[in-house]
Amino acid sequence: MSMVQPVLDRLPQQYRAALQQHSELLKFAIVGAVTWFVDTGTVYSLKLTVLQDKPLTARFLGVLLATIVSYILNREWSFNTRGGRQRHHEAALFFTVSALAIVVTLLPQAVALYVFGLRVPHVSAPTQAVSNFLSGQIVGVLLAMGFRFWALRRFVFPDELEPALTTGRAA
User: Fold this and answer.
1) I want to staple 51 with a disulfide (CB 3.0 to 4.6 A). Which of 58, 101, 114, 142 is the partner?
2) Residue 76, SS3 per DSSP
């Protein structure tokens, strides 16, 4: 019995059924929220200290750290009933999908900075900071999250595992 089951048992049947039907997506979204905070904390820690003039480098490092955390949490929790690949092959595919997702994450911020010129000295530092947050932390992360969910289910964790195969993994 999972830790979530007592909470689910208290919900009205229609909500319980919807949550159970979409539990994988819900878990993925929770992992996404956790890794968003990892990413955001890393990005702003770096941008406010050692990488003040390098917002894309800070973004890359934040996404990289969040991707490592994401693999662990998604493997052991979000997609713990899926698999179909040997662990090293699965990890290689996960990091390949995530590398593509890094590009998806960076694109909106790069467009804002270099196509629309929303960077110092063309705009004020606060304007660049708001633009970086909206284009990188909101638009980029949401686009990459949608891409990752689709690609992880399709390529990395393609098969539903038999219940006996998931007993050794975290629920």
Assistant:
1) 58
2) helix
Tell which residue, 129, 133, 107, has the closest CA to residue 120: 129
pLDDT at 170 over 60: no
pLDDT in the model for residue 7: 66
Q: Determine the Cα–Cα distance for residues 34 and 71; give it in Å rounded to an integer.
A: 12
User: What per-residue confidence (pLDDT) applies to 1?
Assistant: 45
Secondary structure string (H, E, C) spanning 93-157: HHHHHHHHHHHHHHHHHHHHHHHCCCCCCCCCHHHHHHHHHHHHHHHHHHHHHHHHHHHHHHHHC
Question: Number of folded domains in the chain?
Answer: 1
Is 73 part of any domain?
Answer: yes
pLDDT tens digits, one per residue of 116-140: 999 999 999 999 999 999 998 899 9
Token pair 């979530």 is at which residue? 4
Q: pTM (2 decimals)?
A: 0.68
**46 in a structural domain:** yes
116 domain-assigned: yes
In a domain, 114, yes or no: yes
Over the chain, what is the mean pLDDT? 85
